[in-house]
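User: Show me an example of a complex going from sequences to structure tokens.

Assistant: Sure. Here are the input components:
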Amino acid sequence: MTENGDAIPLVRLEAVNKHFGDLHVLRDIDLTVDRGEVLVVIGPSGGGKSTLCRTINRLETIDSGTIYFEGRPLPAEGAALARLRSEVGMVFQSFNLFAHKTILENVTLGPTKVLRKPRQEAEKRAMELLERVGIASQAQKYPAQLSGGQQQRTAIARALAMNPKMILFDEPTSALDPEMVQEVLDVMIGLARDGMTMVVVTHEMGFARRAAHRVVFMADGQIVEQNTPDEFFTNARTDRAKDFLSKILTH
Amino acid sequence: MDELIRYAPDLARGFAVNMQLALASAVLSLILGTVLVAMRVSPTPVLRAAGAAYVNIVRNTPLTLLLAFCALGLSDKMGLVFSQNPSTNGFLLVTMGLSLYTATFVCEALRAGINTVPFGQAEAARAIGLTFSQSLRLIILPQAFRAVIAPLGSVMIAMIKNTTVAVAAGYLADVAFAMKDTFDKTGVSIPIFIGIALAFMAVVLPIGLFTGWLSRKLAVAR
């Protein structure tokens, strides 16, 4: 950890607002993410969860407020923004693996083209990561030849290959067939145990209970409530959260 | 039939010129077309506007007019001379005009190809820290090219046939000129018409078949 690495939160959002036309998707969002923290964002669809997640690496711009990464405002564009994005991994709902590249190439592209690592070194590391997520045997295949779960695990390996300071997960299991959800969650739980800083937008309450340090409940563009998973799931304070939980936890 | 056989060497020399024009223009128009499409999708408004203006002006100008402009306007009037040898200069002027013209069609074909690449591909590229030009070069254009190999083949086929208007630039060496020259001596000959048409078909048909095959082979599975 660097000099004051513990004192400054890794990410801080301050009075962040964002509109899509007339829709006010983020309303005065204040939020911090500490190093090593696993933060799970839950809430009803259309509540601004994904947008919040995507503002942190500036895939979405914001209308007002400030987002700090390691104490510095996010760069607006250019090489500085590219550098920031190389330090913040992202895993998408629809995987977004590069369709014309093999699994191995998907994982080595960032390290060789952005970090300028030698190919051999990048490939060695990529194979280790693919091993870790359980798809080393598929390295020479193309994304379309893999199942959704395997593709998403590749996407996680691709993010890890950049040695990111944190990883954003934007509904990583929402596009998966039910039988493939667990294999992806298992990889994510492993990452959480290893101390990776993670912001996870998800509907998987089981993952939130097992891996999250903090649950953030968002609705209508606002952070309505945040708490430890235990407290949140057993003792939600707001009616909005209680109502949401009653709808998803009845079975 | 006799006149076709008798003048075949002259006609073949002319046809070879058409093929040289086509080859040079293919290379140049693919390069320039790629540059143009990069401009048209770039985040810089000035580049986008310049690319759009170029494509809309050049694509909508008749090729004969464009070639005449290259020879009479740019070269004779404004002094753009590539070579002191008139034949070489003519060849290069036609190549320039044809490449400038064909590049607009290459650009628009590629732009259609870019539209087939899902937006998530560009987002993922940005998310790992690739710059705009890297993501265009490494992620977007390779997929766009594969999506439009067949239409690009059609653009190339049109370009090959367009080499026969080289006369418009005052360049008197291609097969269309050789044909007219022959007719001046022998009178109009149907076999010569047919012979030249078959020669073009012999070149163009395989290109159509090859690009069709290649586009299936290289198609990106999603």
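The lines above are the inputs; the final block is the predicted structure for all two components together. Residues 11-247 of chain A form a domain with the Rossmann fold fold (CATH 3.40.50.300).
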